[in-house]
Design brief:
heterodimer, A: Nuclear Transport Factor 2, Chain: A, globular, disordered C terminus, B: alpha+beta, Arc Repressor Mutant, subunit A, 4 helices, 2 strands
């Protein structure tokens, strides 16, 4: 029987709203305690508790995160994005009203669409300028709309206010997510524009990370049947290993490898076979001194394909770190392929890992 | 002691829970410990926000635990040992004086 888990929407909500540093811990706590509560009482009680935790936890964690990350700057960017989006929205609504009759229902619907589109743009712009600003913008929208609904209840229909109360923050967050995806997709153009310092950073990162960037997971497997559940599980395990890896602790991945694991990356001329060979390859990492500080990473578009007891996890990985000048830069990008299989007592183990370095395209011959 | 290092009441409670829980201190156990001892039902977010403040003040360090099936990942373990060992006493003393 599957262990009781929180509603999927609750986990998605937390994963999309919470900062990376808190995500695993809060979601993990929620899963663990919700299962305990479901066993002690009923699943409905546990679900209700989960929603309560989401409502109480998100503002606190976001507030704490803002304090940590120079919140004034983030808030400033978010407010600027909000003002810009509001101006844009006013212009858009004025144009729509001029083209159509102001009391026409179509005008109201188009106004909603214009409003949400500007919030997407606002979130996009905010996230492009400062990480975390899209979340702050979502918070501002939520507060402003709620205040307007309470203080001026007759200024707009209830459905109109509720639409902006729910979809407004969501649109800003979606804009932030778009920015992230765009950054991942705009690799080639940016890479061409990078200067000498950037190239040096990449070379250093490659030196460190190509020492055998692995990937795997080997915690006891969940019995959830859906792809989404499996994806969540593998991604969570991958994240926990990567969190250690970027600090040059290979043990997280070594714990997750199957005994007969095979491995390729950009620096391996031949395939590496077996866990023992990987241990030997990664051993020097423990004594390395990283040429950058405050490493972090982004994992983009993870996908899982399951066939029986084998699951293929693919994603893009972007490494960041601060170089000698103290400025954070993108250090390297990877295409990552991990093949998992259920081995032994049904645990997911990595049986093959392949990391390829994303290279800028070679100049084409005339 | 700098004023910013002083502890609030919730920070005190969380810190005492850490001291009691020792190596097994993470979100779930901290919440349960506090609920059992004080009856306060903290949210998960409140615990992590408080731990974050304690960490920034230097009272607590954190590390990632081993992945477990129950939580589909790793717990963020908190540790109050070895850091500012006299800090709690100082802070309690300051609070006591203040209340007098």
């Amino acid at each position: 029987m599957n262990p009781p888990t929180p509603p999927r929407i609750v986990i998605r909500l937390l994963e999309s709203l919470l900062p990376e540093e808190y995500r695993d811990a809060v979601v993990g706590d929620l899963i663990e305690e919700s299962a305990l509560r479901a066993r002690a009482s009923t699943r409905a009680t546990a679900t209700w508790w989960c929603w309560g935790q989401v409502a109480r936890s998100i503002p606190l964690v976001l507030g704490s995160d803002l304090q940590r990350r120079h919140w004034l700057g983030t808030l400033g960017v978010a407010i600027a994005a909000y003002v810009a989006a509001s101006v844009l929205e006013s212009v858009g609504v004025a144009v729509v009203s001029r083209l159509l009759h102001p009391d026409d229902r179509l005008t109201i619907v188009l106004s909603v669409i214009v409003g949400l589109a500007t919030m997407v743009l606002g979130g996009y712009a905010a996230a492009s300028i400062r990480q975390g600003a899209a979340r702050a913008l979502a918070g501002i929208i939520l507060i402003v709309v709620a205040v307007l609904m309470v203080t001026m209840p007759d200024s707009a229909p209830l459905w109109y206010g509720l639409t902006f109360l729910i979809a407004g923050p969501a649109a800003a967050l979606a804009g932030g997510r778009l920015s992230l995806i765009q950054r991942a997709g705009g690799l080639i153009a940016r890479r061409r524009a990078k200067g000498r310092i950037m190239r040096r950073g990449i070379r250093l990162a490659v030196l460190i990370f190509s020492c055998g960037l692995p990937a795997s997971c080997a915690a006891p497997a969940q019995t959830g049947g859906s792809m989404d559940f499996l994806l969540d599980e593998l991604v969570a395990l991958e994240r926990s290993a990567l969190d250690r890896w970027i600090r040059l602790e290979p043990q997280g991945y070594l714990d997750l490898y199957a005994p007969d694991v095979t491995y390729f990356d950009v620096s391996t001329e031949r395939r590496i076979d077996s866990l023992a060979a990987m241990q030997a390859r990664l051993a020097p990492m423990k004594t390395m001194k990283p040429p950058f500080s405050e490493p972090r990473y982004e994992r983009v578009a993870p996908r899982v394909q399951q066939h029986g007891d084998v699951a293929l996890l693919t994603f893009n990985l972007i490494n960041y770190g601060k170089l000698f000048d103290g400025v954070e830069r993108e250090l390297a990008r990877w295409n990552s392929t991990e093949v998992y299989a259920r081995v032994g007592n049904s645990s997911w183990k990595i049986i093959h890992s392949h990391r390829s370095y994303v290279q800028p395209p070679q100049a084409s011959a005339p | 002691m700098p004023r910013g290092d002083l502890l609030g009441s919730l920070e005190h409670i969380v810190l005492l829970a850490l001291v009691r829980l020792k190596a097994n201190a993470y979100g779930v156990t901290i919440r349960r410990e506090i609920e059992e001892r004080t009856g306060r039902n903290l949210s998960i977010g409140a615990v992590y926000a408080t731990l974050d403040r304690l960490e920034s003040k230097g009272y607590v360090s954190s590390s990632l635990g081993e992945p477990t099936a129950e939580r589909r990942g790793r717990a963020k373990l908190s540790d109050s040992s070895g850091l500012k060992p006299r800090a709690t006493g100082h802070s309690v003393l300051r609070r006591t004086r203040f209340r007098r």
